[in-house]
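Good morning C.,

I know you're traveling, so I'll keep this short. The sequence:
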Amino acid sequence: MSKSIAVMGIGRFGKKVAVGLSELGVDVMAVDGNREILESISNVVTYAIQADLTNADAIKGLGLEGMDAVVVAMGEDMTASIMCIMVAKEVGVPYVIAKAAEERRGIILKKVGADKVIFPEEETGLKVARLLASDNFVELFDIDDNLCILEMRPKKEWVGKNMIDLDLRGKYGINVVAVKDENEKRSFIDPHRPIEDDTYLLVVAEKSDLDKLK
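The tokens, ready to paste straight into the viewer:
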């Protein structure tokens, strides 16, 4: 059975979330006060509903009690964010995620009932900073608040050594889950095979350990 998730506020962030969830097979209710914005994704989501998200009665009329989760995607409009969170929790939505523009607003959204607060601009900035800070990092994907998957080139001192010699888990706290080179992708890791210049490593790591890899 498919999950049902409501995305409240279809700005740039909310639209990406709504479209992404739909592509993953989730039933998405997209809600915004702007009809033109809703029309731009109406053929992608399950429902596209126009509503005043600062009005509690309008929000209650959406039928959120049937949702598995609600994403409150308005970072700047605190009135609408607070109203959506409070109504969603009042009608029994089990999980509410809210976007916040900065930490102080995030604290407020947590106090009114949000189960998780995210800071997209801050998280994107940190990701870019990590990639720029190292010549070895190629791409970084967040798994949760603590873990990430990192695609990286080998450090110069790793080239010519194998996984046993390097002991990356012991020295850096990372787990290499796959390797690839310019010609092929391999999910099997031969611990005796030396790493070459064109080897790319797919690594699971705690974010606190990333500084060790720079």
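Safe travels,
E.
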